[in-house]
Amino acid sequence: EKGTYPHYMLKEIDEQPLVIRNIISKYQDENGEVKLDENIRNAVNAADRIYIIAAGTSYNAGLVGKQLIENIAKKPVETHIASEFLYNMPLISKNPLFIFISQSGETADSRGVLVAVKKLGYPALTITNVPGSTLSREADYTLHTYGGPEIAVASTKAYTAQMAVLSLLAVDSAKAQGFELDFDPIKELSIVATVMETLCDQKEALEKIARDYLSVTRNCFFIGRASDYYVVLEGALKLKEISYIQAEGFAGGELKHGTIALIEKGTPVFALATQEHVNLSIRGNVKEVAARGATPCIISLEGLNFEDDQFVVPKVHEYLTPLVTVIPMQLIAYYAALHRGCDVDKPRNLAKSVTVE
Ligand code: F6R
């Protein structure tokens, strides 16, 4: 039930700190150490390459998952859109592990790939919010995201839950390989939960941004570099699906290779700036679009922020930054849709689980 909330989406956004704390408690052993099922640990470690398959928001989580697993567990990962995978199948390594990420566990495009790779004899793990779903039953292993039912069509808490579980999978694999971690994953995820709460308390400021930037616009752009790029893809998807504003996420450096032609006076451009090594270059991209009339909105990280940034996110561990930076984007999308009179929980033409190819 949505209780006092006007929409499930808002409720589900607010539930994210709780979901993260749930995940922490479910994937911890009695000594407070991250621990995955032994069969899953072995399957991950037997793999010489991981292929993540997913659609939509779950695909966006898979992009961040690739970085988490490569950075923490030092295993090569490729992330693929489910609906395209079989048309242009990459060369598969000798000992692959396929990881399917799916909130519903029912997405037909993902299932199509699962059926094909099982036929080829490859092992498969499903990360899902619905254990017992088709993708969970048909894979060899399941990791539960413990998000609780997600009712709003636009996925919010499932996305952050998927990334949290992927980070723990990476940590578990790193430990099994004997790597020394230079951070405490449980502590860092707890900080994420706390920061999520802080962000969920800033609805007024985010509603104002939505009003100022998105009340009347026809289109808008989201830019970021490195892992911020993956998060802006999700920010753009959230906004377009519920507000019907044409929104595109771009790598900061790519906009000028064509799409900058679409920038007009007043076109909103949201830029995410949360990483030191790309802070100046993404701000350079903001200058490029501003010089062509865009109205930029910079969302930055505490410590890397400049004086005029429109919104500043508190710091968390660099690997986990996407779990918190997405929250302002979710809330901006929510308020933009609300102000434009859209049906937030049930956007037109969309279904919660897409069971056709
Ligand atoms: C976006 C959204 C969709 C789903 C996609 C995959 O908010 O909800 O893009 O992420 O249809 O669904 P699952 O994760 O159920 O496989």
From TrEMBL:
The active site is at residue 352. Keywords: Aminotransferase, Cytoplasm, Glutamine amidotransferase, Repeat, Transferase. It is found in: Cytoplasm. GO terms for biological process: carbohydrate metabolic process; fructose 6-phosphate metabolic process; protein N-linked glycosylation; UDP-N-acetylglucosamine metabolic process. It comes from the Bacteria. GO terms for cellular component: cytosol. GO terms for molecular function: carbohydrate derivative binding; glutamine-fructose-6-phosphate transaminase (isomerizing) activity. Residues 36-179, 209-347 form the SIS domain. It catalyses: D-fructose 6-phosphate + L-glutamine = D-glucosamine 6-phosphate + L-glutamate. Its EC number is 2.6.1.16. Homodimer. Catalyzes the first step in hexosamine metabolism, converting fructose-6P into glucosamine-6P using glutamine as a nitrogen source. This is Glutamine--fructose-6-phosphate aminotransferase [isomerizing]. It comes from Anaerobacillus alkalidiazotrophicus. The lineage of its organism: Bacteria, Bacillati, Bacillota, Bacilli, Bacillales. The gene is glmS.
